[in-house]
Design goal:
There is one protein chain. The protein is mostly helical. It has helices spanning about 1-10, 15-25, 30-35, 40-50, 55-60, 70-80, 85-90, 115-125, and strands spanning about 95-100, 105-110. It has two domains: about 1-80, no CATH class; about 85-125, no CATH class. Helices cover about 65% and strands about 10% of the residues. It has a two-stranded antiparallel sheet. A hairpin with a 6-residue loop joins strand 1 and strand 2 (about 105-110).
């Protein structure tokens, strides 16, 4: 879907990914602020991510006072995971590559954590 949005709107994949994220998250308050032009796309994405971490309404309102870099740090601080979760995620990852007999077709599948998946996707798209 991201590729379709990028091609139809003539925007980068990163912008299309952000638009898709906002469409799926459906935070009414952030959508209204974005539609009214009171916040931009990047702030809307960050505020939605902050809301998904369990931030209270007062924290979301206070986030309007942050610059984008400060808001990114706030979201990153709330998204930290415990060492046990990180170890489990690392242990569960795998990537399988299987060619057919004449190597004319290759099959890929696996389970990767977010950053690793983004790196693989970026490498395949470039």
């Amino acid at each position: 879907m991201v590729e379709w949005v990028a091609s139809r709107l003539d925007v980068s994949h990163a912008t299309a990914r952000d638009l898709m994220f906002l469409a799926r998250a459906a935070d009414r308050w952030v959508e209204e602020l974005l539609a009214d032009g009171r916040i931009g796309l990047e702030r809307a994405v960050l505020m939605t991510r902050l809301g998904l971490t369990g931030a209270s309404e007062s924290e979301l309102v206070a986030s309007l006072g942050f610059d984008l870099a400060g808001l990114e740090r706030l979201v990153a601080a709330r998204r930290r995971i415990a060492a046990a979760e990180e170890t489990a995620t690392f242990g569960d990852r795998y990537l399988m590559v299987q060619p057919n007999l004449d190597e004319s077709v290759w099959k890929l599948w696996g389970l990767l954590p977010g950053l690793d998946g983004q790196l693989v996707e970026k490498a395949l798209l470039e």
